[in-house]
Write a structure and sequence with these properties.
Cation/H_exchanger_CPA1; sodium transport; sodium; globular; transport; mainly alpha
Length: about 200
């Protein structure tokens, strides 16, 4: 994915990933509530089901689009939406799970969503910059570069989820995008290894 096109098309990607997923979750939840009547689901349980089934995975579609020679912008929008969609689906799942099975209030949910989603976004950007800073100080040592790259991924997820209470998935996605945008800090040999 071309990171520069991703940043240029960022708001379209966010529109699809956030609002598109919310609409798909709502429609799937309404359908589940009406079709699975025998389960006696509450609306929150139906929306919980909707958040699970609404996540998309367009890997085959992107490969086909690339083979057909479609525009780079379209492929980037679809890839970017897929990356952010997974993290947003997990956030929506947690919200509807808490609404269905705990005593979170609407105010707490209203504060939870931006904190988790935006926190993951910004923490991933910062973690990406720190990782790139480390990588720029390594000279021609593939093992160290690979170790830093893999360790930063796991650390970003763990610190995001367990320490900060934000979306580790969104943080790791943004970490990867940030490293990719500044990939000149990775040696060519390691870049080949990381793409395998």
């Amino acid at each position: 994915m071309d990171v520069h096109i991703f940043y240029k098309m960022f708001w379209q990607v966010v529109l699809l990933a956030v609002f598109g997923l919310a609409v798909a979750t709502a429609l799937s939840g309404v359908m589940a509530k009406m079709v699975f009547v025998d389960y006696h689901w509450t609306w929150f349980e139906a929306l919980l089901f909707g958040s699970i089934v609404s996540a998309t995975d367009p890997v085959a579609v992107v490969a086909l689009l690339n083979d057909l020679g479609t525009s780079k912008q379209l492929s980037t929008i679809i890839e970017g939406e897929s990356l952010l969609n997974d993290g947003m689906a997990i956030v929506l799942y947690k919200i509807f799970f808490n609404l269905a099975f705990s005593s979170m209030t609407a105010t707490e949910i209203g504060l939870y969503f931006p904190r988790v989603a935006l926190g993951g976004f910004f923490f991933g950007l910062v973690a990406g910059r720190v990782t790139v800073f480390w990588l720029q100080h390594v000279f021609n040592d593939a093992l160290v570069e690979i170790t830093i790259t893999l360790a930063s991924t796991y650390l970003t997820f763990y610190i995001g989820e367990e320490v900060l209470g934000i979306s580790g998935v969104i943080a790791v996605v943004m970490l990867g995008i940030e490293i990719n945008s500044l990939k000149t800090s990775i040696s060519p040999e390691v870049e080949v290894f990381l793409h395998r």
